[in-house]
């Protein structure tokens, strides 16, 4: 069974940067597309970015394009989310999630993902 563990969250000032990590263990992590999602208090969970199982075809939400970069290192079974130029509205709990797929693509719809990590808090505030 695949398991995911996020790390790298914290408190950062507006304009700052953080890098989140999603470490996968268990059944063949390189068969899974990985997505990053976030949920702020009182809001629905939304897709932030995702990457296909082979590391190509990343997708980004419009709100983070040009500021966030997703990457994966299958040798380390880890997916990263580099977040630059952070804004207060980026404050949320960030989750990584995995979906088993044969396709070289990914989607930003939470229902498509069956395995979730526990989340890591990101707070952007001065």
Report on the structure:
There is one protein chain. The protein has 126 residues and is mainly β. 0% of the residues lie in helices and 48% in strands. The protein is built from no helices and eleven strands. The strands form two sheets. Strands 2, 4, 5, 6, 9, 10 and 11 form a seven-stranded mixed β-sheet that branches. It has a four-stranded antiparallel β-sheet with strand order 1-3-8-7, with no helix packed on it. β4 and β5 form a beta hairpin. The radius of gyration is 13 Å and the shape is globular. The termini are far apart. The model has no long low-confidence stretch (mean pLDDT 95).
Q: What integer value in Å does the Rg equal?
A: 13 Å
Biggest sheet overview:
7 strands, mixed
Average of per-residue pLDDT values: 95
Number of strands: 11
Q: What structural class do you assign from the helix and strand content? A: mainly beta
Regions with little confidence, pLDDT below 50 for 5+ residues:
none
Q: Approximately how much helix is present in the residues?
A: under 10%
Report the sheet-strand fraction: over 45%
Shape: globular
Can you count the helices? 0
Could you state the order of secondary-structure elements as H and E? EEEEEEEEEEE
> Cα distance, first to last residue?
40 Å
Q: What's the quaternary structure here?
A: single chain
């Amino acid at each position: 069974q695949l398991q995911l563990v996020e790390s790298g969250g914290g408190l950062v000032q507006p304009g700052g940067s953080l890098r989140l990590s999603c470490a996968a263990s268990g059944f063949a992590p390189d068969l899974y597309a990985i997505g990053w999602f976030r949920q702020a208090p009182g809001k629905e969970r939304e897709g932030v970015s995702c990457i296909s199982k082979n590391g190509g075809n990343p997708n980004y939400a419009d709100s983070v394009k040009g500021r966030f970069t997703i990457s994966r290192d299958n040798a380390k079974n880890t997916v990263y989310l580099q977040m630059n130029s952070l804004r207060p509205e980026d404050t949320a709990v960030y989750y990584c999630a995995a979906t088993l797929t044969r396709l070289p693509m990914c989607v930003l719809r939470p229902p498509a993902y069956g395995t979730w990590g526990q989340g890591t808090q990101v707070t952007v505030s001065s």
